Amino acid sequence: MSNSDFKGASVAAIAATVTSAIAEAADAKTVDKLIAGIKDKDEQVRTDAWLGAGQVGAPAVKPLAKVMTDNDLEVARAAKRGLWKLVRHSGRPEAGAERKAVEAELVGLLGDGQPVSVRREVLWMLSEVGSGRSVDAIAALLSNNQLREDARMTLQRIPNKKALAALNQALDTAPDDFKLNIAQSLRQRGVKVKGLACVKLVPTKKTSVEPVK
Amino acid sequence: MKQSKQISRREFLATAAAGTAAIGVPYLIPARVLAGPAKTGASERLTMAHIGVGGMGGFHLRDMKRFQDNGTVNIAAVCDIDEKRLAGAVKTAGAGVDAYRDYRYILERKDIDAVVIATPDHWHAVQMVHAAECGKHVYVEKPACCTIEEGKAMVAAAKKYKVSVQVGSQGRSQPEAYLAHRYLVNGNIGRIQKVACFHYNSPIDDNPVPDGDPPPELDWDMWLGPLRWRPYNKRYCHGTFRWIMESGGGQIRDRGAHVMSCAMWWMGADGTAPVTVEATGTPPTKGLWDSAVTLDVTYTFRNPDWVLTWNQHTGNAVPAEERTGQEPGGKISRPDYGAVYYGDNGKFVHWGGDGGTWVEKKAREWKPPAGAKDVYESPGHKEDWFNGIKTGAKTIMNIEAAVGVANLCNLGNLSYILGRKLQWDQAGQEIVGDMQARRMMARPQRHPYHL
Predict the structure, then answer these.
(1) Which of A48, A59, B229, B324 has the most CB atoms at less than 10 Å from its CB?
(2) How far, in Å, CA of A131 to CA of A114, rounded?
(3) For B222-235, what is each residue's pLDDT tens digit?
(4) How confident is the model at residue A95 (pLDDT cuts 50, 70, 90)?
(5) Contact at CB, A91 and B435, closer than 8 angstroms
(6) Which domains does chain B have, with CATH numbers?
(7) How much is the ipTM here?
(8) pLDDT value of residue B27
(9) Looking at residue A8, what is its pLDDT?
């Protein structure tokens, strides 16, 4: 590398760093504005804010998730709707990179540090936009009693081999009281599951109401 | 059902069960209820059960008593997941009618020939398919299904198990619907290029409350059924399920399944579908309900080319015509929804489209000239279903047609949710070019309440 090449590369690197910093600052400002709107006392302002969440994209995922457990019912609801709007905007056909960025942020919300209600919602978001990159984190929740049914359904919906392999593996490792659920997903995915007879037509719930005599 | 010298359907099921039990997915059900071809003799009284007996289900139960009185049916069982509603229903149904919380007890009863399903929308497909698998004929409320894949399963089950299915878009069976159909197919307004449906807004949840414990009479797990689990909130039910996207889908799925049913029937468009669907709307600003408050959907059909629109805005109704009450459909009691048909040579308006279907005077008073085309005139929606059961004739709102209409509603909502135009491939029965939308053609269902 010549001296001038080095200088050129340095200038480019500095420019890229500056551009990235400006973008991050802009992102932060935009996210702050979005969250302020979501928390506004006026329901129309909140609605306008969450409707615009899609344009903000991945940087808003975690801040919105945080507000989803706000004590104010309507603020929490606006945050949830905003996150859904963002996920659905990111899933549009021409937005592959945007979707990947959103997916990565969503996966980051599946950990034990997040409330169950948020993780459940995030699982269903991943059922719409998740790829092979999400599968390990989702499959890990098949052993979580509160989230395993949502995790199973999420894997069922992700149309790739890795999700299918995770379900297949879970059939071997799942506790007996969850094997039928896994079998259901595998059958929906076209897998022939031996044994584990389907119980969908077996009645279980009795009434106390008596016929009129 | 009276005993017949021919082998009865129940006897057939009992003897055929051993031969069919080993086929396909293993089910844990009594062998006697495995489905065979459903058949009921023309002179036999049908044994009927009602699944879901509140709201519209309560209407069906009361209405069915009319057919019990005239010897068409025997009502044998009622079912609901709300014990208070169930207790009310057994009183309505009368002595000796059995009560169930779990509809699957009804499906395993070999004496029951047919079921009326009037549960929230998210149960329709699962219960209809299960009933068909157990050899029961089905009347299921509209809209037929909540997703594209549910609709496919319903069509496949009805075909495989040879059961008669009528879907509750009863507008097709109204006397003035026949008059409108006949008027339009005879070219009175020329070639129709556009059908514009009008309807008022979906409501906003004006009394939102936090999640809480379900009341003791309600089995929340069974109310949810196939839906993913969530805490109970009293704004979900009863009746208000209509305004939740997952379970009801708003006015477009409620009344759209009526008004657009008439459009597809009168346009001769059953079995066809739009190539594109594009929706825009406004969401509620608060509360649990999330269905679009206002909604505009454009469906573009090709070969033949025409456009169907759904316009949901309070105040957009075409003023209703004056009536004396002596018309076939009587006075117009619900003038706030309907459709305008635009043809080369004029336009035509109807109001309602459900249990009340009212059409313009010019269609009612039109006298068909010699050689005019005639169309099928339904004897009544339930009568048409009974005829389907007894003769094998296709019902007026058969499952294929009903799924086609439900798909219109569902695709409209899907386009609204996603905020983009969708492309539909009718031959492949699928959305094309949009991976996320394709995934949303199905919705995984909670165990064991699944197709």
Answers:
(1) A59
(2) 21
(3) 999 999 999 999 99
(4) very high
(5) yes
(6) 9-171 (3.40.50.720), 172-371+400-439 (3.30.360.10)
(7) 0.91
(8) 59
(9) 58
* Contact call for B99 and A211, based on CB within 8 A: yes
| Window from B8-12, B16-20, B337-341 with minimum mean pLDDT | B16-20
Q: What is the pLDDT of residues B70-127, one digit of tens each?
A: 999 999 999 999 999 999 999 999 999 999 999 999 999 999 999 999 999 999 999 9
The mean pLDDT value for B402-430 works out to 98
Q: What count of Cα atoms within 13 Å lies in the side-chain half-sphere of residue A9? A: 6
Cα–Cα distance measured from residue B266 to residue A132, given in angstroms and rounded to the nearest whole number:
47
d(CA B228, CA A146): 12
Task: Please give the Cα distance from B239 to A180 (Å, whole number).
Answer: 32
Q: What amino acid occupies position A213?
A: K
Pairing of strands B338-343, B192-199: antiparallel
Asked if residue B295 lies in contact with residue B251, where contact means CB atoms within 8 angstroms, the answer is yes
Q: Report yes or no: B348 and B340 within 8 Å, Cβ to Cβ.
A: yes
Q: What is the full DSSP assignment across A145-208?
A: TTTHHHHHHHHHHS-SHHHHHHHHHHHHHS-HHHHHHHHHHHHHTT----S--B-TT-------
| R_g of chain A, CA atoms, integer Å | 23
Tell me if A208 and B83 make a contact (CB, 8 A cut-off): yes
Find residue B115's DSSP bridge partners: B49, B138
CA dihedral B12, B395, B376, B353 (to 10 degrees): 160
Q: What is the DSSP annotation of A89-154? A: HHTSTT-HHHHHHHHHHHHTT-STTS-HHHHHHHHHHHHHH--HHHHHHHHHGGG-TTTHHHHHHH
Residues in chain A closer than 8 A to B125 (CB atoms): none
Beta bridge partners of B338: B198, B351
Closest chain B CA to residue A79 = B286
| Tokens describing residue B337 | 């929804």
Q: Which residues contact B112 (CB under 8 A, 6 or more apart)?
A: B47, B48, B49, B76, B77, B106, B136
Token pair recorded at residue B179: 């008059």
Q: Which residues of B touch A43 (CB under 8 A)?
A: 285-286
Q: Is the Cβ pair A211, B98 closer than 8 Å? A: yes
